[in-house]
Amino acid sequence: MVGGLCARRLARRSRSALIAALTVLLVQTLIVWNFSSLDSGEDRENGGSNVREKRDRVAGNKAAGSDYFQHGVHQRQHLPPPGRGTSRHIQQPDGYYSHRPKEKSRVDSNNENSVPKDFENIDNSNFGARSQPQRQSVGATSSKQQREHLQEKAHAQQQTWRDNSPSLGRSSNEVLPVGHQPLAVGNNASYPNGQGVAGVSRQQYRTSQAQQAQSQHRHQHPHRRQATAAPLEVTYDQPPKCEISGKEAISALSRAKSKECRQQIAEVYCRHKEGQLMPEKVTRYCPLEGKANVNVQWDEDSAESFPLKPVRIAFVLVVHGRASRQFHRLFKAIYHTSHYYYIHVDQRSNYLHRQVHALAAQYPNVRVTPWRMATIWGGASLLTMYLRSMADLLAMRDWSWDFFINLSAADYPIRTNNQLVAFLSKYRDMNFIKSHGRDNARFIRKQGLDRLFYECDTHMWRLGDRKIPEGISVDGGSDWFLLNRMFVEYVINSKDNLVTNMKRFYAYTLLPAESFFHTVLENSAHCESMVDNNLRITNWNRKLGCKCQYKHIVDWCGCSPNDFKPADFHRFQQTVRPTFFARKFEASVNQEIVNQLDAYLFGSFPQGTPALNSYWENVYDEPDGVASLSDTQLTYYHSFTRLGLARAAASLQGNPKDHSCRYFPMGHPVSVHLYFQSDQFQGYLVKHHATNLATSKLETMETWVAPKKNFKLTTPPSSTFSRLQFAEIGTEWDAKERMFRNFGGLMGPMDETVGMQKWSKGPNITVTVVWIDPTNVIAATYDILIDASAEFTHYRPPLNQPLRPGVWSVRILHHWSPVAEMNFLIAPLSHNKHQPIRQEDALKLHNGPAKNSYMEQSFHGLNPVLNIPVSLGYVEQAKRNAALTSLELEHWLDSLVGELWEAADVCAVGPTACPVMQACSKNPWSSLSPDPKSQLGKPRADGRIR
């Protein structure tokens, strides 16, 4: 009896000890997993974006999205598709999900890049007010063996989480597996005879789903899994001066690419940890207790009487990219001989830099910064660039200016120069800067001002928390402003406590240009000159513009404005508040709105002016070097030149003795332009060299290659299905502007393709999308639920690479009836690492995915249902093509490119022996033809050039 009682007590104690041990082990495991997640910067403070990334990888969907999700379709249970494995494709919305509730976005928010999530009460810090002790550390006290042990445990735990994650956090909006309609639509409508494809019953799928779910992605993307593995050992030239224990700092160190950047991160972290970096208290010099806000009004007639002493403006133009013609139009619109123009071109935009230098040589009041910076979104370098530009302007004794105005190439005036000068002359002592207009504590959280950031390797790394200095009011909003010279001189030259400490504080701040000038102005003796209006209209559509699209360059999420379209023109004519500029404009997205605004300000161009509806944008220029191109681009451009030469030879009407229009291609392309007409993409213009076979002389010509139509609806469209307007496959999908930035879809075997569909409004429907490779292998298939008001859907199927080269087809079906079909080309690469491809590389890139399997599951059973024949001949031919190189490869490539592109015309840049070839300057499509709206001229008597 007693022995039994003791045994039971001992058993209870053993169980308690076992439970306690398991609890400790679980806590340790969770801590280690949390450490392992740092490689991708995972934390909820970042809007849950990295949790979402892991979900995307688990679901086999990277950065997919759909407008349809913003309309509240409910989640339903769906059965897996046929095949060896199962894969649920979860289509994410255009925004991003967080575990925290969404915050309502205010459409009247004035903060240019406000973070669209509420990060309140999230504790993920390193130091400062919210600091918590950390279990892991990297630095002087961390041994190599300890780090390696932690990394091994972290990787194992991370993989366990991935393998079991399909049951976690499912989205309420899905791209469904093939052939499975929502249960509310109909249980058996998706399959012929109410069965699963190939006669497999739904119950069988349901039974196997749980068994297969854990292993479905274990082998699907091994190369992608490596990208999120535990970080490698962090190496330094010199060991850190402190123990680095903060989670964000460890994450930054593990992800930084260069040793110099890691060294700087460690140094900044240690200096901050020791209290040497941030000011604790800053002096406020403003005599006011609250925020000053001078109310100024716009008088439409104020420009009628020009001021006796007009102000002179220093425009600082901060430009990047390749849209030189749009920049020329902006410059023409704001130019006047009375003002000054200081232009900074991003360090990575060499083509635009050459164009800007040519422009500056024409005008004495235009200068280009002798230095260049690679400014990044949200980076501290942007504030540095502005401060350096201000210092330069103050040092130019021959430039006597009164106001500083910053503009980008995406800006355009909505009032004339005379109106702007009349207004600023009236308020010459004011500073125009737009505040966020929100609760200040909330703004600080959303903007990340209470976090420590550091910029290196063209990335903003978040290193932990920090305290806002005492004694001042932190403010911020838009980073576009108009500041008077007196305040600029104070910011640049003052050594007082406020300016000195704010420069220190904002050197380690995210989006510093959106807050530094606001905070200094509000706390300085100049505070009473603050006008809460930056005189701009910005096209905010936060539903589309807050996509966390900058996460590859900053450990944060933000928003950016949309482009204006013709429907927005009425907004420029409002007179409720003074406005003189608007943003954003992109001629490659829509040039018509710029034409309308230009005519509104300056009057229409004379009738018959050429190229008013044409737009050209450079994408390659010979001085940039072929290293600036991808192998896919280089492959296509070479093929385009050969298509142009074949067109020239065809003009000889088959005469074998006439060689006057026959050419041999020479060298790489000279330049490449995008060509648009009436805001429609018309193709590529490739300038290139070739040797004339009749004269053996080198000639230069330009070829226009236009895309063929490859999308077709069924004829006639189904009476029950008429919503689909257009569909396209491409890369570089811009969810904000709903367009592919890779115009024409130039794709190769290693590109990640996205399928897009455009819809009209109508009843809720479900469609099936089927991707078919050149050998008739069904690579992917999925269902999409389209909400009644959805406009666009897009999805990136997680296809194993390399994709098989050739012409692919995509079919869209409704209730298994064909609705539409489109083709797209995966081009075999003629170049690898910018050199002619070798056979061993061709075999690796052109043989399709391993085991001919694009996904874990096989869709072979769908071939008979969709009437897609399986042919061994296609497979054998594909294998032979994969081994092609040199001329044979070029012939195959050109035949494929010719199926989706055509040489619309060819022109001669200089002298030519071909009698039927016109000069490019006389061809309205050529990039060398006249373009008066973008061409610059000498100033007129009134000081303007427009």
Automatic annotation (TrEMBL):
Alphabetical list of Pfam families matching this protein: Branch, Xylo_C
Biased composition (Low complexity): 201-215
Signal peptide span: none
Entry superkingdom: Eukaryota
Basic and acidic residues bias spans: 41-59, 104-120, 145-155
Primary localization class, coarse: Golgi
Keywords of this entry: Disulfide bond, Glycoprotein, Glycosyltransferase, Golgi apparatus, Membrane, Metal-binding, Transferase
Catalysed reaction, written as an equation: UDP-alpha-D-xylose + L-seryl-[protein] = 3-O-(beta-D-xylosyl)-L-seryl-[protein] + UDP + H(+)
Enzyme class: transferase
Keyword Calcium found: no
Membrane topology category: Single-pass type II membrane protein
Positions with biased composition (Polar residues): 122-144, 156-174
Start-end of Basic residues biased regions: 216-226
GO molecular function: metal ion binding; protein xylosyltransferase activity
Family of the protein in this entry: Belongs to the glycosyltransferase 14 family. XylT subfamily.
UniProt protein name: Xylosyltransferase 1
Species for this entry: Seriola dumerili
